[in-house]
Amino acid sequence: MTLDTFLLIGLGNPGREYRDNRHNFGFMLIDRLIVRLNARGLKLQSKAIVTDAVYNDRKLILAKPQTYMNLSGQSAQGLIHFYKLSLSEVLIAHDDLDLPFGTLRMRPGGGPGGQKGLASTIEQLGTQDIPRLRLGIGRPPGRMDPAAYVLQDFSRDEMKDLSSILDRAADAVLTFVTDGLDKAMNKFNGDIRET
To answer: What is the value of pTM for the model shown?
Structure first.
């Protein structure tokens, strides 16, 4: 019996100096899933750090592209082709400036909204129909350059809520895997602090 397989890709930048950046929200979510699912066996594949887990009789491939954000599509495309997956079996998790901090939004597709890792993935795959989980980081204060803002670490206040946001996002991902995108969207889209 072969298990249904799902590829979960978190976007971010490799390297210790980026670890706590807002732009690495996708990596943080993959790390949270690795711990929750007790995933084992890290390997480098298609320019990504990849590990496998099993959840409710489904195989999960958890991936963090190591290409830097703007080239994430190279890794995503390589992994999708290697595992011969349809896009309905893929979920991209990434930070999103257009959503307030603490807001999760799952979508079946759409444009990149200025997120360069997602733009790279859309370009490489030739479609916008890629399920994604947008992790809100809010807009930069004042006239701060968004490019500088996303490369800042989360603030001390944000760090207080980060763990509960990542737990809720992990719940959303696992609901996507077991119950599908529509149910996950209905249950998890919104501000986690209002639930």
So the answer is: 0.96
